Amino acid sequence: MTPLLEVRDLATRFHTLDGTVYAVNGISYTLEEGQTLGIVGESGCGKSVSVLSVMRLIPEPPGKIVAGQVIYRGQDLLTLDEAQMRQIRGKEIAMVFQDPMTSLNPVLTIGRQISEALIAHMGMSQEQARARTVELLEMVGIPQAADRYRDYPHQFSGGMRQRVMIAMALSCMPSILIADEPTTALDVTIQAQIIDLVKALRDRLGMAVIWITHDLGIIAGLAEKVIVMYAGFIVERGEVDDIYDDPRHPYTLALLKSLPRVDRSSQERLATIPGLPPDLLDLPPGCPFAPRCIYRVERCLQENPQLKPVGLHHEIACWVDVTTGREQ
């Protein structure tokens, strides 16, 4: 089966006064119809830049997509002109950003902001767009949606603003929804509501989802496939059960050990990952995680490994077998 989206060897750089930032370094993955893919990793690992590259939203300059292909329904999005790409954005592939307050225009009503996409992409009249906007607000759980059509973003809570952003993203019934850490600024109760909402809408509408987060706990009940990123590279890729039941990269293992668990003693301290991520202006010659890795061998400091299979749908980029501690 041909995947809905295929990212091949995508690389993105930022040229700054201090030098070149190697933000995304040759990543590849596929997304099937109706599937949910989780992209995880700590801040600065390239998660958001990778999906902004897919959407062609990297500011040029200083950014530039320097290599790769993004194949959506058989066409390479990186070869389209801006007018063609605007027909894809919002209509075919939509995105929900991390901070809804800065993503929404503070001087326009939320009704107008959602209606604009319906008029531009779906050819609706003002009245049709208004009726559809009210339906969308009801779909995402905004109470008294018809009355709130004329309200401004500041009149909504953080959780409600994020629901508005989801309604806006779903307005043209996209095939792919990209959610870039949409629950980071919300409290845990609202986080759970937003996650449940996206899952319900995904199942109802049959869309595929790319969910970006630094929280592995969120992905467990949401995604079918997971990729783990570090310093712009994919270090582990597989089905969600493989990643959680049998993590094989030291970084993934360390991330999972740092999660709080209900079966741990209250006196037991959470594990931490020593050191800091590498400077993307000056990546080390070997594996970028090697300086922080408790399993490293001499080869790790000299050569960066490529992804290789450790199971049927499970790949890692590591020279060491963490189950034995030996080089493989």
Would you mind describing this structure in some detail?
By secondary structure, the protein is an alpha/beta fold. The protein is 30% helix and 25% strand. It has helices at 47-54, 82-88, 100-103, 110-122, 126-139, 145-148, 158-170, 188-205, 216-219, 240-245, 250-257; strands at 5-16, 19-31, 36-40, 63-72, 75-76, 93-96, 176-180, 208-213, 225-230, 233-239, 308-311, 314-316, 320-321, 326-327. The model has no long low-confidence stretch (mean pLDDT 87).
Question: What's the short version?
Answer:
This protein is an alpha/beta fold. The protein has helices spanning 47-54, 82-88, 100-103, 110-122, 126-139, 145-148, 158-170, 188-205, 216-219, 240-245, 250-257, and strands spanning 5-16, 19-31, 36-40, 63-72, 75-76, 93-96, 176-180, 208-213, 225-230, 233-239, 308-311, 314-316, 320-321, 326-327. The strands form three sheets. The chain has an eight-stranded mixed β-sheet, sandwiched between helices.
